[in-house]
Amino acid sequence: MKTSYSDVNFDVVVIGGGPAGVSSALQLAKRGVSVALVERSLEQEGRMGETIHPTIKPYLQNMGLWERFCLDQHLPSYGNRSAWGDCLLKETQFIFTPYGTGWHLNRDKFDMMLTDSAKQAGVRVFTGRIVRLLHKCSSGRWLIQLNGEYETMSARMVIDATGRTSKGDSSSRTQRMRVDNLIGIRGIMSIKPGMLRDLYTLTESVEDGWWYSAFVPSGQLVIYFFTDADIAKDKGYLSIEGWTSGLQKTLYTKLRSSFCLTGGKLKIRTAASSCLTKIVDENWLAVGDAACAFDPLSSFGIQKGLNMGEKAALAVTDYLQSGSFSFLQKYENDVRRSYRDYLVQWTKYYSMEQRWGNSKFWERRHYSDLSNEILD
Ligand SMILES: Cc1cc2nc3c(=O)[nH]c(=O)nc-3n(C[C@H](O)[C@H](O)[C@H](O)COP(=O)(O)OP(=O)(O)OC[C@H]3O[C@@H](n4cnc5c(N)ncnc54)[C@H](O)[C@@H]3O)c2cc1C
Fold it and tell me: Which of 107, 196, 254, 255 has its CA 20 to 30 A from that of 276?
């Protein structure tokens, strides 16, 4: 029998239970705001994103999660090795940062830790529920309809934390501005017999994009190929054969992988850099990748989600208490500024690779017109 949540009223409903959604909900609940969090997946579903920087430590400490994080047996990440711009492998070590190592995550445990902490802080968490419809009533309150027509809740404020496919507030003319059409194609591989796991991430650029790989606590190697959606389709990288044949043409990535794809399938996700044209509105705000999504090259998405979640919670609390829109506007300005800073870095990083003059993938990144996004 379905449970009916009709007539459940909250100050805030957060849609999306990724790092940004959980962080926003948790920080709001800590400030005494009544919050519901709605997440469409039932259990942890093997989300993408397995490596985090050492600089995540203060965020986890601030959320009161550092001790539990340390108990969850994530693997340390000692740094990055990268063949980018030429075929020599360069190494950046994390050990010299003030926070020590980075981490290769057991992503299911990490996500469970976040959700548990939100529940403990008093957030009402609804999993396995998709938000189907958002309707703004004349009173200004939101009516939120979940999977079934009898499952509704209402809120004074909605936070969109649905990730990088969010189209924003449907009641206004919000658009998603994309810089590219990057996708990540993930395969998980078993390790070659007798091979030692090294705890560095490896990034390697090739003519049609770049490869990324890291060992995870399960003992497997996670390998991504990042390319543009049209190139992947035209050149066959979406099939196991095409992806594996691309892998065999790498210099370094192939050396750490076996030829056996665990589970025998690839997982594909958009990884485009993008930003909403409107990040806040009356009683509405976007957070995390829903507001602006970075290229996974930065390996900062999870940390950015936690950080933005806290900023969003502060802005929303002040807005709800004072009724002044300026708190939301300031939040939007901050998000836009960090997205512009990110785009400057994005351009610099991709321009370091000049080996393939005839490659569509690199040409698009060397000559992409970011003036609107940067100057807006
Ligand atoms: C291929 C790839 C590899 C990456 N690797 C890394 C990495 O190594 N390190 C790193 O830090 N970052 C990485 N990232 C980025 C990182 O995954 C994201 O930046 C981060 O997850 C963003 O968090 P979020 O909470 O904003 O969104 P998400 O994590 O995308 O969470 C959004 C949530 O909303 C839910 N949802 C969506 N629609 C609805 C709906 N209608 N109703 C209810 N729920 C809904 C989804 O189920 C999802 O759980 C990677 C990204 C990609 C694409």
Answer: 107
